[in-house]
């Protein structure tokens, strides 16, 4: 919810958040300052009241003992108007906001003015409050005993609003500069955020310069720590896109290369069928044309399968354990018509009834389809293909055998090369290359051996 209410700009959003935190902190500090200032002012003024009371006790000792009937007022009346007095040198307009009175046996002896201020508690020393009907006063009372059972009392009072005014002045003097400085702070924060976001602007400008034909990595000098993952992620994405484009270009080039000759042959067969003089020649040309179409279809299927495999093996998805024997039986059943044309027998064996291994089911199907299809091309009539699965401490093992024409020892290392064909058998030469790509994805060890007296052995060892 908060994200939706903030400005849709990192710079503005940062400014709003920083100034909000600053304002909240200032208000909080102001509240704490009011409480602390009020406490300190109260203590300071209370100490002054107590000090004044004790000082007055010593200074007015003669007046107390004189026992005068009429009180002596320091000022003839309450100072209510500042303009009536000349206080430029020896006075202050706050003099009317403080009061003291000295009492002897319940009568005023000396007072600062004619105000009648008596503490609410009349039977003890110390601090208290009084109200004369107009203002609330903070008081301090000091009682002493005289001769012959008489007593005196000194009352020093100060208006409470004076203290509140003092606290307000202290807080305003501390908070007001901050309030005035907020716009200036906002300007500096805006400039600081702009400087802090400068590397992001540089990164954006570098990305804009990237051309689809030249996906060069983005490299910035003195990259901030926060932008290092962003730069790495962008470079990783550019590398992946470059590899994808490269695979597509290779696939297009390979497809064009592999289909150029078959298409030319198809055209030639079509021309032969068109120019045939006899029915036998036309039928022969049409059969050759049909055979060429089948070969082109297989080439296209293998090219598409290879492109699909290259894209799939880049994905890192969690794998579930599957029953490899179940998948093997299904693939054999699907390809059995192709084997039956040459009366090739196929055997599947397993060391256990249930073999579970974490592998993508479609990947295992592609491996088996290519191995079986490859064997079907090179195995003669009434041949034999065997698929043996086993599990040991090292992992899952597959031994694939056929008794076909085999291959020379020197050519075994070239079987996984793209478009390599050991003979003139139709195909694109991609089957075993696809198997190699998939096995590398699973860190599987792929090996080719000669099967004596003839044929090929393919060994796959999938690690645990």
H and E string: HHHEEEEEEHHHHEHEEHEEHEE
Give the DSSP E fraction (strand runs of 2 or more residues). Answer: 15-25%
Mean pLDDT score: 77
Number of strands: 13
Describe the oligomeric state of these chains in a short phrase. Answer: single chain
Q: Can you tell me the residue ranges where pLDDT is under 50 for at least 5 consecutive residues?
A: 76-89
Structural class: alpha+beta
Q: How is the main sheet built?
A: 6 strands, mixed
| Share of residues in helices | 40-55%
Question: Which sequence of strands runs across the widest sheet?
Answer: 1-3-2-6-5-4
Overall shape: rod-shaped
Report how far apart the termini are: 48 Å
In angstroms, what is the radius of gyration? 52 Å
Q: Please count the helical segments.
A: 10
Describe how the helices and strands are arranged.
Elements lengths: L1 H4 L4 H50 L1 H6 L5 E2 L24 E7 L2 E5 L14 E6 L4 E10 L5 E9 H37 L1 H11 L19 H48 L3 H34 L8 E3 H17 L4 E6 L5 E3 L2 H18 L5 E8 L3 E8 L28 H11 L3 E6 L5 E8 L1
Helix pairs in contact: 2-4, 6-7, 7-10, 8-9, 9-10
Which terms summarize this structure?
single chain, 464 residues, six-stranded mixed β-sheet, 10 helices, 13 strands
Q: Short description, anyone?
A:
The protein has 464 residues and is α+β, with helices and mostly antiparallel strands. The chain has helices at 2-5, 10-59, 61-66, 160-196, 198-208, 228-275, 279-312, 324-340, 361-378, 431-441; strands spanning 72-73, 98-104, 107-111, 126-131, 136-145, 151-159, 321-323, 345-350, 356-358, 384-391, 395-402, 445-450, 456-463.
């Amino acid at each position: 919810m908060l994200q939706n209410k903030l400005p849709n700009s990192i710079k503005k959003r940062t400014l709003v958040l920083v100034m909000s935190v600053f304002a909240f902190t200032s208000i909080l500090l102001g509240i704490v300052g009011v409480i602390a200032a009020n406490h300190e002012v109260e203590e300071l003024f209370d100490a002054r009241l107590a000090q004044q009371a004790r000082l007055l006790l010593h200074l007015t000792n003669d007046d107390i003992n004189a026992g005068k009937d009429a009180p002596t007022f320091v000022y003839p009346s309450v100072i209510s108007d500042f303009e009536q007095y000349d206080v430029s040198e020896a006075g202050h307009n706050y003099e009317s906001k403080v009061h003291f009175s000295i009492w002897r046996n319940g009568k005023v002896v000396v007072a600062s003015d004619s105000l009648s201020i008596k503490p609410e508690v009349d039977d003890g020393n110390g601090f208290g409050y009084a109200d004369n009907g107009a203002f609330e006063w903070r008081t301090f009372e000091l009682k002493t005993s005289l001769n012959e059972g008489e007593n005196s009392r000194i009352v020093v009072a100060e208006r409470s609003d004076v203290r509140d005014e003092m606290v307000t002045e202290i807080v305003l003097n501390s908070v007001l500069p901050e309030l005035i400085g907020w716009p200036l702070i906002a300007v500096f924060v805006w400039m600081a955020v702009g400087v802090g976001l400068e590397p992001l602007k540089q990164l954006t400008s570098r990305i804009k310069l990237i051309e689809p034909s030249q996906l060069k990595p983005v490299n910035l000098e003195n990259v901030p720590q926060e932008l290092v993952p962003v730069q790495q992620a962008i470079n990783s994405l550019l590398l992946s896109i470059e590899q994808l484009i490269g695979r597509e270009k290779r696939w297009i080039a390979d497809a064009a290369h592999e289909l150029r000759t078959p298409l030319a042959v198809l055209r030639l067969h079509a021309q032969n069928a068109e120019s045939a003089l006899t029915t036998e020649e036309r039928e022969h040309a049409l059969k050759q044309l049909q055979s060429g179409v089948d070969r082109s279809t297989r080439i296209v299927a293998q090219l598409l399968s290879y492109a699909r495999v290259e894209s799939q093996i880049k994905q890192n998805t969690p794998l579930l354990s599957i029953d490899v024997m179940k998948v093997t039986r299904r693939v054999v059943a699907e390809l059995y018509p192709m084997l039956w044309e040459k009366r090739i027998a196929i055997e599947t064996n397993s060391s256990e009834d249930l073999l579970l291994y974490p592998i993508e089911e479609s990947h295992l199907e592609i491996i088996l389809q290519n191995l079986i299809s490859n064997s079907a091309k090179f195995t003669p009539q009434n041949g034999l293909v065997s698929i043996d699965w086993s599990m040991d401490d090292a992992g899952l093992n597959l031994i694939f055998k056929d008794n076909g024409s085999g291959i020379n020892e020197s050519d075994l290392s070239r079987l996984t090369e793209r478009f390599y064909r050991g003979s003139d058998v139709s195909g694109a030469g991609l089957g075993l290359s696809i198997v190699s790509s998939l096995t590398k994805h699973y860190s599987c060890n792929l090996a080719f051996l000669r099967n004596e007296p003839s044929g090929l052995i393919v060994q796959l060892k999938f690690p645990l």
